[in-house]
Amino acid sequence: MSRLIEGGQCGALVRSLDWSGNSLGAIAAWPQSLTAAINLMLNSSQPMFVAWGPELNFIYNDGYAPILGGRHPKAMGRPFKDVWPEIWHEIWPLIEKALSGQATWMENMHLVMERHGAPENTWYTFSYSPLFDDTGAIGGMVCSCIETTAEVLAQRLADFRLALDSELRRAADPAEAMFRASELLGSRLGAARVGYGDIDASGEFVLVERDWTDGTIPTVAGAHRMEAFGPAIIAELRANQTMTVDDVNIDPRVNEGAQAFAAISTRSVMAVPLHRFGSFRAMLFIHHHSPRQWSAEDIALAEETLMRTWDAVERARAELLLRSSEERLRFLDELGQATIALTDANEVLAITTKLVGEHLGVTSCAYADMDQDSDGFTIRGDWSDNGSTIVGHYRLADFGELAVERLGAGQPLIINDNEVDIAPHEAATFQAIGIRATICMPLVKNGKLTALMAIHDRLPRRWTDRELTLLLAVTERSWSHIERVGVIAKLAEINRDLEAMVAERTADLMAAEATLRQSQKMEAVGQLTGGLAHDFNNILAGVGGSLDIMARRLEQGRIAEIGRYITGASEAIKRAAAITQRMLAFSRRQTLDPTPTNVATLVEGMIELITRSVGPAVAVSTEMDERLWPTFVDVSQLENALLNLCINARDAMPEGGSLTISGENMHAHGAKASKLGLPEGDYVCLTVADTGTGMTPEVVARAFDPFFTTKPIGRGTGLGLSMVYGFAGQSGGNVEIETDLGAGTRITLYLPRFAGELETPRPESPGATVETRKTDTTVLLVDDENLIRMAVAEQLRELGFAVLEAPDGPSALRIFEGGANIGLLVTDVGLPNGINGRQLADALRAWAPTLPVLFITGYAEKAVLGHGDLDVRTRVLTKPFTAGSLQETVVNLLQ
Questions:
Q1: Modified residue 4-aspartylphosphate is at which positions (predicted)?
Q2: Is the pLDDT score of 524 beyond 50?
């Protein structure tokens, strides 16, 4: 007879039990075939059990123990029927087959089990197989199983979502959308009645335009006073809580409201509230004519259905209000343009707070500057919907310990209801100035709390990520704008003083200039704005002048002369694109296309270009480690960064010298990694060293600042090193400067090591040209900018494509669903109306998995595009781009 082997906790349990009182008898007397089967089961990680003997005594392994729930370990050795009495009638026919010698297999079988004291729906995939004793007769059975409950529920939910989305797309108007969703949800939950109700302006009545029933109870279309159904349950809805009643006749919250439910033939109810802008706007209700217990899955499905349906309803209603919305958007655009030109901080704050308050639908919005000690603040500007103001000085401590803790740590203060979220004594100041809900966003500069911007509501309000994100962006922009206005005002004051004292106050002038330089250093945003304004005004002057002359030449009929002005405007646009690319690199927002890269090979391929660029007076040499690791970077950006560093080195050696490019491997850990600002790990070090003039500590401190340069006017933009710094950081590395005045400079790029293997380049095979596809390829072009969409569409049509245009994701989906044979999707990433470019591409590929996609973007939407997860049927093209770049990308994508 086989010996029982160690088999986990259940194996130990089998050996520890006294089997003499069991129908199986002592372990030593068990048939060899039984002990062999138990040995196999106990040492398997697959959930399994053996049922043996006339009573089918139950022996299971560690993998099966969690399935038993609270019945483990008492189930060990007990008869099968006693272990699972509630499902015995369902599984007995399968057991009979196994005991008759016929193996069975069930996939995703539904069983209602009571493993934790209450019935629960479960699904299993399992097999029952006969077990033979030592004489060859069937002595029992063995089961191997896996619980598939999570997978089944997930698939059912996914199927429901697809069906719901399909029904909502088919709806012609808001009422139909709500009815279709009600019908689908009612059928899924087995309910008798489902519908949507709008809450009237008074907040007292629910208005039901149309509902769905299964035919067993009547409709409740019409107006109903909500309090008639029980004040307690209506209070839950007003508090934005999903309300469920299993039986209205016994639930104490209903009381006299049971009569109102009886009048509409309802015994059990679920209601999901919808709150918008701090008010109770609508509800989804689900009724049944008999008592029932609402599960957590039922509630979650109803809540999700409400949100999905209401989004579709809101979009449909928005289309009906398109004209008024467009008029309001034009007004807001004009207001935003007016703000840019303002030079008075109070005017900036007045317009900004009004814009934010009205856009977010809050009752007030305020901006404040912190005191020097950060213990108090002064509200400089605010707006409210009733004309009241809270301008004045306040102590931060007056708003409670939570405000001091959160804002002092540079974190937003978010209060949905100060009567619930914070202590009564902390809420007193909020309540004194009429605030019930608030988001207060801190601005921290140089480690110090500098300013605050807040939105408020008089009613409780559940704040969303949209409001939080918008307020963060507005806080940063408002502070930068006000600081810019302050710098302009300071400059004007200095200029006025200089006009009166230029002859006798030279020393004061120098001090004022030093103060200004220090102010510019502390205010990076102001410096960035000035640099951009200077360069882009020059570029715009070139483009505008060229366009003006071209217009005149066209009026004069002198067409032959406009070629050079077109060339001039194009060159200016290329320069603007280059500045934008460098700025995105500095801010780590450029769109990168990283690939596994051999840095030594890249440097070797650039030596001739670098040698020509630095000139004959500079000797160029390389020192590359023969075992240099690969890295994962954007090759073109690395080439651009290396060339920038070499040109800077050349400029630091006006009389000539030597330039050395070296590459080595480095492991950064401990203090070394901390000093370099790098996570611990392996890095490739690419160094450019020169024998030039070196830098002072003051220059090194500002070397990576945008628009900072020590070169004469016209000799550089000051974006070269800032671009290198931004590119390195965005690639997961950093940049280090080592220099001594008069003794040269070493600038090192630290790039993370790539752990994989480099692919051997394969020769490209000739692909299909645009001309071979132009007769059978239709392009779906999606961009919300009309001018861009017009230009790209014209370029594609000139290449021979048929082009269908859409301004947003929903419009594009309607074109696709209309049966258009789309061969290529060209889409912007950032699109309005709820569907961005990546989501649109995913939706279309659900129907056409091999659809080629070209993303055109003027920004780095990495949160949407992901990091390195674009497949071979996907490309990214950064705006602005030429017709040639577009053609080349499309040809490669369609090969």
A1: 828
A2: no
